[in-house]
Amino acid sequence: MTAAPPAGPGVVKTAPGPTVPPPPPTPKHRPALRALTRALPVSPALVLLLLFLVGPIAYCAYIAFTDLQLTGQAESSFIGFDNFRTAFKDDAFLNAVWLTLVFTVLSSLIGQNTLGLALATLMQRASKPVRTVVGGIVITAWVLPEVVAGFLLYAFFRREGTLNAILDWLHLPSQNWLFTLPILAVSFANVWRGTAFSMLVYSAALNEIPKEITEAAEVDGAGGWRRMWHITLPMIRRSIGTNLMLNTLQTLSVFGLIWVMTRGGPGNRSQTLPLFMYEQAFQKSMIGYGTAVALLLLVVGSLFSLVYMRLLRTEV
């Protein structure tokens, strides 16, 4: 056996420490118990969501596959996809789909989004009194109840309304806007009412852009439009996607504003899917068919959400 070499000068021998026993094995049920303990605080909210959200949606999904009616029927029966086949063969339904897309694109994707970004950009350079007045006016239109806003815009666009009075004063031709261009009138009304949300979202996003970046671009000779296109828009891309998704989902469900202004008319020239669904379910008493249309509207909203979420996941 070879002896250990003697310790050199300045080397201190240390006695081996006590052996630490390994920790006892964790019982297999402990992680499950820990997860259950963490879920207990949110369990009341989960129960409420299941009871008041998932439950009604599941019941409506079942009704969409039946011929349930409000009157003149003893009991309903399961009819499969007949309601959906009827919808896609119905010219009125296809017209409502087209008008819903036009209303959403004009009032949400173009109107509220563009105007909200423009107001947020201009108010960054405006003085404090101007920001206070403009912000107050825009937000007041937003906080008004939908029915009240509908009556105000009806008084603005009607044949004897404010818009035609202004046009007459300017010696310009006037017309019955709610009869000749109803979908444009209700789209403008939705822009007027909902632009405040986009303005607030973009104001918060623009305030998060470091001033050093825009100042450096300005020193390098970049103009306002180049700074907006190459710096501002890429840096607030996620805010743009979030705003578009929320605005689109809100616009798809607009009912009271259009109902007060035109009731979907004249004829069905401003009848979007929510109004068509209401007509079939409650005016014609075809609850099953109307619920099927509501499910199709839910699918349209889900498709828009998937597109926006895909855009939000894309890196700049």
Report on this structure.
The chain is mainly alpha-helical. Helices cover 70% and strands 0% of the residues. The protein is flat, with a radius of gyration of 31 Å. It is built from 15 helices and no strands. It has helices at 29-39, 43-63, 82-89, 91-125, 128-143, 146-157, 162-169, 177-180, 182-207, 211-219, 224-235, 237-252, 256-261, 273-283, 287-313.
Please write out the topology.
Blueprint: H1 29-39, H2 43-63, H3 82-89, H4 91-125, H5 128-143, H6 146-157, H7 162-169, H8 177-180, H9 182-207, H10 211-219, H11 224-235, H12 237-252, H13 256-261, H14 273-283, H15 287-313
Helix pairs in contact: 3-15, 4-9, 4-12, 5-9, 6-9, 9-12, 10-11, 12-15, 14-15
| Main structural class | mainly alpha
- Global Rg: 31 Å
Helix share, percent: over 70%
Average pLDDT number: 84
- What amount of the residues lies in strands? under 5%
The number of helical runs is: 15
Largest pleated sheet = none
Spatial gap, N to C terminus: 68 Å
* Residue windows where pLDDT falls under 50 for at least 5 positions: none
Instruction: Tell me the overall shape.
Output: flat
Order of helices and strands: HHHHHHHHHHHHHHH
